[in-house]
Amino acid sequence: MRVRISHLTIASAVLLLTAATASPMERITLAPGSRLWFDGTSTLRSWTCTADKIESKIDAESGVADAVLNGRKVAGTLEVEFPVEKLECKNGTMNEHMRKALVAAKHPDITFNLSGYDLSKGTPQGGTVQGSLTMNGQSHQVAVPVQFVRADGALRVTGKLPLNMTEWGVKPPKLMMGTIKVGNVVTVQFDLLLQH
């Protein structure tokens, strides 16, 4: 019985020590130069819509860049959001049709909430991020292959995710009385610079 109590006491002490020495969470921001965009096709030409505004709420243990680049996971939370109204397609008509297709008036934002990630071995450091992507009022779990590299003191995260618009309840836009049709598959791409 004394041995069991002794082991419990030691285990409790280790847990308390671990909690006391755990790395504190730090706020991480997106550095200037961070980008997020959609690539797609139509019966006429390919197109790109860029998010002119990206908002983020990111908290992680200190030293996240070194940890991830060395293949070590750290605790943290991440939410990225951008307003549909700030999608810029370099074409006023396309802007209008894209915002209408995404029902911007009813669902003004597209958001991604991280639920976890895995790191793979190799150089450059790669992995997969998992989370919930909400668009057009519908949320789906997604897994996105990513690459991590160091860039000017920041952690650069790049990746892309093909999406079928109809799976999200989005009707691909049609222009010129239906003679120009946007393809159902769009690819979300991102190049984010995370810095303390």
UniProtKB/TrEMBL annotation:
Residue ranges of every copy of the Lipid/polyisoprenoid-binding YceI-like domain listed in the record: 27-195
Keywords linked to the UniProt accession: Signal
Keyword Signal set for record: yes
SUPFAM superfamilies in alphabetical order: YceI-like (SSF101874)
Signal sequence interval, chain numbering: 1-22
Keyword Signal in record: yes
Source taxon at top rank: Bacteria
Name of this protein: YceI family protein
Organism: Gemmatimonas groenlandica
